[in-house]
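Q: What residues go here?
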């Protein structure tokens, strides 16, 4: 894949405020069901569309924030949860109403550092007053307040404002390896083909690494772990960097010459889109785990679970053996809610996050960091318990000779 990605734009507001109608205007098609009956949209609906004049985006149509009843409360909860995963919010209001309901939403947007535009919809029925517009602009951090007519609204102006408001990081991302490789470097990718490998293709981090190496005008060599020793011996090639699957760290560490930088795909992603500094601080907390401590493993995608799954089987086994403690493990897949109080966990281990955005990953761990719960990453955990942590994180130090033992 290339370096482009789709921004997530969430549409929020009260029931029957015209959220679905606005989505249809943005996409130029009947994307969302439109009805005068309040509560037509239930759970958040996520769809990929092309906005004319802007590009591909993920639009999220949400349930009304003023829903009622037990089921309505669950819908509102789903709507609030979606705020953690968006890059831009459109807050839809009507009839010059901007009160407690809207203030709550604005507070959630700002708590997650999410830019937002306030759209006064149904201008054909009631026009936005200067008093309301000025109050919103003076009392909130709204990027803009835009009046919008359902039938004849200036869609070009709205799209222009979206383009101005959405962070560039939402649709263009920096190089995966650009800060650690140079023109003409030979990069060795060690990619085991095991029970967890998808049939007939490679996993996403491997594909991303290959493309990024080529984008940086370097040379990519891909091989399985069984061919690693023979390749190095027969060719005499000394790669500038070797990247391995975390599960075979020990074999790679033994085979790759010590003067060749070595890391894993998971650590590469941790540095690229995770909270790397927090991972560096959190990983050594493994040594402080005690009997009965509870560990949370966060898988940010859903996949078929094999009998020797890395997150559900291998890491728990390796951690238990390394610490010699009786530990408890919970696994939460995708972006599902974490049901337990986050403070019940002594350590949180996040996967590489190849299937989610940087914003989603950061917000996934935000509450844990606020509560001082240590966080780390799959690859960094595996490297630590196998005794090759310093080598695995060294390629991402500010200087090649920086002493990384300060994190231990």
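A:
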């Amino acid at each position: 894949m290339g370096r482009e990605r789709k921004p997530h734009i969430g549409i929020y507001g009260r029931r029957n405020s015209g959220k679905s109608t606005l989505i249809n205007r943005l996409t130029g098609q009947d994307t969302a069901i439109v009805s005068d009956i309040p509560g037509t949209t239930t759970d958040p609906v996520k769809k990929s569309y092309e906005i004319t004049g802007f590009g591909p985006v993920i639009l999220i149509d949400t349930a009304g924030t003023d829903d009622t009843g037990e089921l309505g409360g669950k819908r509102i909860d789903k709507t609030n949860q979606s705020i953690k995963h968006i890059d831009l919010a459109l807050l839809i209001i009507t009839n010059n109403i901007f009160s407690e309901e809207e203030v709550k939403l604005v507070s959630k947007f700002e708590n997650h550092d999410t830019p937002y535009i306030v759209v006064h919809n149904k201008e054909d029925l009631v026009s936005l007053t200067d008093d309301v517009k000025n109050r919103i602009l003076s009392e909130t951090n709204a990027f803009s307040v835009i009046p919008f007519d359902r039938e004849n609204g200036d869609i070009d102006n709205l799209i222009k404002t979206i383009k101005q408001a959405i962070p560039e990081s939402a649709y263009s991302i920096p190089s995966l390896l650009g800060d650690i490789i140079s023109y003409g470097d030979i990069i060795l990718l060690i990619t085991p083909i095991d029970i967890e490998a998808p049939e007939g293709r490679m996993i996403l981090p491997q594909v991303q690494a290959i493309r990024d190496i080529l984008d940086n005008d370097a040379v990519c060599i891909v091989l399985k772990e069984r061919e690693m020793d023979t390749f190095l011996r027969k060719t005499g090639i000394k790669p500038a960097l070797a990247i391995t699957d975390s599960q075979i760290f020990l074999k790679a560490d033994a085979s790759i010459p010590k003067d060749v930088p070595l890391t894993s795909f998971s650590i590469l992603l941790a540095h690229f889109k995770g909270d790397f500094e927090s991972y560096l601080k959190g990983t050594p907390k493994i040594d402080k785990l005690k009997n009965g401590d509870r560990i949370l493993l966060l898988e940010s995608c859903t996949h078929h679970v094999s009998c020797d799954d890395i997150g559900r089987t291998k890491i728990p086994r390796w951690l238990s053996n390394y610490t010699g403690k009786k530990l408890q493990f919970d696994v939460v897949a995708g972006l599902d809610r974490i049901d337990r109080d986050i403070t019940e966990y002594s350590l949180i281990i996040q996967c590489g996050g190849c299937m989610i955005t940087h914003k989603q990953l950061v917000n996934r761990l935000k509450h844990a960091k606020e509560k001082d719960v240590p966080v780390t990453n799959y690859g960094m955990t595996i490297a630590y318990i196998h005794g090759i942590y310093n080598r695995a994180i060294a390629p991402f130090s500010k200087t090649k000779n920086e002493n990384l033992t300060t994190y231990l």
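A: Context that may help when evaluating the design: Residues 262 and 391 are 7 Å apart (CA to CA). The first helix runs from residue 19 to 27.
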